């Protein structure tokens, strides 16, 4: 499973770096029309960034759940492949 987790770890690291590079502008001070418009655009940018991060987190959760299911299936197959002797029930 380590071979499968490495690409996901690299993908996750890349996804966390990209939003930092596309950071939203700093808030503008003042109550002019231009400052209000810039702050509105900043809020929209922050909402979009929050949405992207929540989607990434949801994907991460889904990937982890799938990995756990795969691990469970592999463990069950290993257990099923073991040749246990059939239990002998005592006769009274």
SSE layout:
Blueprint: H1 2-21, H2 33-81
Helix pairs in contact: 1-2
Written description of the protein model:
The structure is a single chain. This protein is mostly helical and 92 residues long. It is 75% helix and 0% strand. It has helices at residues 2-21, 33-81. 0% of the residues are buried. The mean pLDDT is 83.
Structure at a glance:
By secondary structure, the chain is an all-alpha fold.
Number of helices: 2
Gross morphology: rod-shaped
* Beta-strand fraction estimate: under 5%
User: How many individual β-strands?
Assistant: 0
Span from first to last CA? 49 Å
Q: Unreliable stretches, pLDDT < 50, 5 or more residues? A: none
Mean pLDDT: 83
Q: What helical percentage do the residues reach?
A: over 70%
- CA-based gyration radius: 26 Å
| Element string (H = helix, E = strand) | HH
For the sheet with most strands, the description reads:
none
Question: Key terms for this structure?
Answer:
mainly alpha; 92 residues; 2 helices
């Amino acid at each position: 499973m380590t071979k499968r987790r490495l690409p996901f770890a690299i993908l996750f690291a890349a996804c966390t770096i990209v939003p930092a590079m596309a950071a939203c502008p700093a808030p503008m001070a003042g109550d002019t029309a231009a400052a209000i418009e810039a702050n509105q655009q900043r809020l929209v940018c922050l909402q979009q960034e929050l949405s992207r991060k929540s989607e990434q987190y949801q994907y991460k959760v889904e990937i982890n759940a799938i990995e756990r299911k795969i691990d469970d299936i592999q463990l069950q197959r290993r257990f099923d492949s073991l040749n246990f002797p059939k239990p002998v029930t005592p006769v009274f």
